[in-house]
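A brief tutorial aside. Many learners find it easier to grasp structure tokens once they have seen a single protein encoded end to end. The record that follows does exactly this for TSC22 domain family protein 3. Read the sequence first, then the structure, and try to relate runs of similar tokens to stretches of the chain.
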Amino acid sequence: MEVAVYQLHNFNISFFSSLLGGDVVSVKLDNSASGASVVALDNKIEQAMDLVKNHLMYAVREEVEILKEQIRELVEKNSQLERENTLLKTLASPEQLEKFQSRLSPEEPAPETSQSPEAPDGSAV
């Protein structure tokens, strides 16, 4: 049982040490290891885990703040574009709106009659 505990503790220390960028800590336990050294080892493992957790939480909070700012910017841009779209719709003539709608949905036939194209002065081309 103590060998399994030693292997688990050694793995945890090596793992957390590599995460934190430090050198791998070598811990030697023999069959006569005192309970105090095991407790100290457990405390060090717990401290390393807390440190990793704190670093991860900080990184996540930072990323959340960046994403919140991007969302605010996108909402603002969307509102601006919606206002611009509304303004353009009010300024556009019915013919322009109809032409625009026909370009948006080409699969639907436009409700126009087939006539020959006209020149700018109104005569047939």
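Self-check: The CA atoms of residues 87 and 107 lie 27 Å apart. If you spotted this yourself, you are ready for the next section.
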